[in-house]
Fold:
Amino acid sequence: MSKLIIRNARLVNEGTITESDVLIEDERIAKIATSIKVDNNVCAIDAEGKFLIPGMIDDQDHFREPGLTHKEDIYHGTKGALLGGITSIFEMPNTSPATIDEIEFQKKIKIAETNSWTNFAFFIGACKANVSKLNELEKMKGCAGIKIFMGSSTGNLLISEEEDLEIALKTCKRRVAIHSEDEKRLIDRLTIINKSNGVIEHENWRDALSAIISTKKVLKYAKKYNTKAHILHISTADEIQLLQNKGKFITVEVTPQHLTLFSPDCYNKLDSLAQMNPPIRSLEHQIGLWKGISNGTVDVIGSDHAPHTLEEKKKQWPNSPSGMPGVQTTLSIMLNHVSNKKLTLQKLIELLSENPCKIYNIKNKGFIKEGYDADLTIVDLNKEIIIKNEYIASKSGWSPFNGMKLKGSPVATIINGSIKMIEGKVLEKPNGKVIDFD
Structure:
């Protein structure tokens, strides 16, 4: 029986902070108490002065495998997650070929069983070819749910017609994750944008109204059929206001990028490295997103890790691809916001760990409780770091936050009861497991 004890930690759990020891036996939290006696040969971590948090579940990652592994793969993507204090990931279906059927889904499961450093689950992508079969596909073991792209993405992964959206939201019984931008408006606006201005036009092309129109459609049909809809990477203050009365079935995600970067500064500094969909917008919109966190409209923070090579990103806009790495920096970026009093550590854990488990009905994760899986992260709120491209594990090898000084960092990541990262050093080998859902 393998054992690990974490001593003197400040546990962050369900809105409270308490000082306790935590004993882990055979991948589970066996005991939580003020002082736990164990044999001297039991592996121990002294976490005095640090915080022990439930392992973060990142609900939106694009690891590009299969087919696009020159950008990223599951091994490097989940290694970045591990270094960033993340213990579980949900990976998206816009690979090549797209993950739209059981055959492609099982291929990913097999790759991850060998190469994933973290626990994992995968989304099935919705498209015209499978829209009537989604309720069967979502039942597969290891399936986080269905992903709908309402604005163009990879290949045939697109649900742009309203009748197809209605079928999908009527059919799916589990959580449906949605990229909400209106395809028709995107097509129309691209014809009137002055492309010679470069990437500064990106947010003008994919304007706030593109997101608002799309999100209103989601609300229309999700409320009609009581669909469990999870709207990803909300980027506008208008949507936050629209979603304040979203109802009990609809949930909302924002990203660290939208909470940290704003235009036009980010485009002037980073050029197309700041390009993502939906776009980074003005400070006014960013303020609206923070209001969404404070008033409870926002339920989840996800990385939307979507890397491309630097060579690809240097293409002339709009031919430059949208997306940026983020899985390794999400927790540190958000801990820095805690340091700057933008939110409390308890609220952050609600957004990173607790709510993803509630929303997706993940078994035995997201909380520090006896009998729960020992997926845990130790963070040091006083540790100062500088994000540097050379430290990024992603195959893309860069971060939009390169050079940023932060206060607060993960110092150890424990997955399935084993120490997998400590003080920036990765241990053992990849052995993540398929996530179980109720």
